[in-house]
Amino acid sequence: MMKMLGSLIASAALILAPTGCGLSLKSSSSSKKAFPVTQVSAAVKGSDYQYTAQDVRILRDYLLNIPVDLDLRDKPYDLNGDKKWNAFDLTLMKHIMMEPEPDNDTLVIYFSRTGNTEKIAEYLIELTAADSYVIEALVPYTDDDIKYQDDNCRANKEQNDKTVRPGIANPIKSIDSYDTIFLGYPIWWGQEPRIIDTFLESYDFSDKTVIPFCTSGSSGIAASEKNIADLVPIGNPLKGRRFPASATKDDIKEWVDTLPLNNEKSEAKLLISVNGQELTASFADSTAAKELAEKLKAEPVTIALNEYGGFEKVGKLPWSLTRTDVNIETEPCDIMLYQGNQMTIFYNSHSWSYTKLGHIENTTQEALKALFGEGNITVTLSLK
Ligand SMILES: Cc1cc2nc3c(=O)[nH]c(=O)nc-3n(C[C@H](O)[C@H](O)[C@H](O)COP(=O)(O)O)c2cc1C
After folding, report:
1. Are residues 253 and 379 in the same domain?
2. Is the overall model pTM greater than 0.70, yes or no?
């Protein structure tokens, strides 16, 4: 795709000639035209129109002179306001779609080769008001590539080799600002396409809620869910759902309404009373943190924490919580679940396998060290 864009930009910009009955194309000789990307981008961002993967596809096909079976007259595809539709607009459109909205904590990510998963993703984006990101292959999958009746087609060869990692054309810069990720894909030979594995291995999901969804002829989602869980650490993996291509927006809504997605994480705080002082912590986005908050709703709990290793205080909880351990380098003020039934509060860094429970917000490393002292302590946990 980048190659194609490059050649489009370098060769001939396509001029949009508005006519009474539609749009037609002619070639322009002035191809190298500079324009202020940031200004233009900001102007378009100010408008209400939400560009989707479908818009990218329509504009791309239009620019490649592939017949588009739609009335394009009202489409806001002149993104840089130069009264033309050309490769610059396509580039800007992709930029805008890839830029994360800082105040949105949900992201719908999907790969779709023939549009079925895309349709479900678009319902989901609408229903959850999420940002979106489309995974596109660096080398696009042609129709021949996915002719699964042919043993030697590209998709079949890739699915037969778990180590294949097809390149991604437009990697999203970061997913750090998102807590909740919906991840959509078609089922290929009972599993997620290998490009999903490329994507998963490129980012850190250890503090994210991840919800897979897929479309297929009939196969279920279970095998791909297991593959994903085995591939990368995920903070809070939620059960996914398979949909047929014919699924409606109501079907998607019914599913979304059953998901344990809530705002408790941002609202509820963990109060830790120690030596007459109160520390306030945010909860992590892990199943264990949600379970801890639920337990503390019933009553506060007091636990003894022992000094360990010059970097933490650790003690037994009255219950076991769900482990989603990952190898992690802790930061001072992190609160971790250790071996499923112990809580650890760090005043120095340490690398080990933990499940994150939270992070103390209203103190510093030095103040925490001073408050904890050198010996064992007793803390009372409650909800704020
Ligand atoms: C290479 C390939 C393998 C497939 N394997 C399966 C499969 O194992 N089970 C199944 O039910 N459908 C299978 N399908 C059908 C797709 O999962 C289905 O058409 C899906 O909705 C396509 O999604 P998309 O339009 O988002 O690409 C396969 C399709 C392709 C191209």
Report:
1. no
2. no
DSSP lists the bridge partners of residue 210 as: 181, 237
| Res. 7: pLDDT tops 60 | no
Report which secondary-structure segment, H or E, holds 360: strand 351-360
Mark which of 36, 70, 98 sits at the end of a domain: 98
Q: What is the DSSP letter of 191?
A: B
Residues 6+ apart with CB under 8 A from 131: 100, 101, 104, 106, 107, 108, 125, 178
Cβ–ligand 1 contact at 193 (below 6 Å): no
For ligand 1, pick from 188, 195, 224, 242 the residue to mutate: most ligand atoms within 8 Å of CB.
Answer: 188
Q: What does the pLDDT look like over 338-353, one tens digit per residue? A: 999 999 999 999 999 9
Q: Which residue has the tokens 């800007």?
A: 92
Which domain CATH number covers 333? 2.40.100.20
Q: What domain count does the chain have?
A: 3
Distance 186 CA to ligand 1 centre (A): 5
Q: Is the pLDDT assigned to residue 43 strictly greater than 70? A: no
The rounded Å distance from CA 121 to ligand 1 centre is 16
User: Which of 51, 52, 50, 73 minimizes the C-alpha distance to 62?
Assistant: 73
142 & 246 share domain: yes
User: Does 240 share its domain with 113?
Assistant: yes
- Same domain membership, residue 194 and residue 117: yes
**pLDDT tens digits for range 190-216:** 999 999 999 999 999 988 999 999 999
Q: Beta 180-186 vs 205-215: how paired, if at all? A: parallel
Last residue of a domain, one of 48, 74, 98: 98
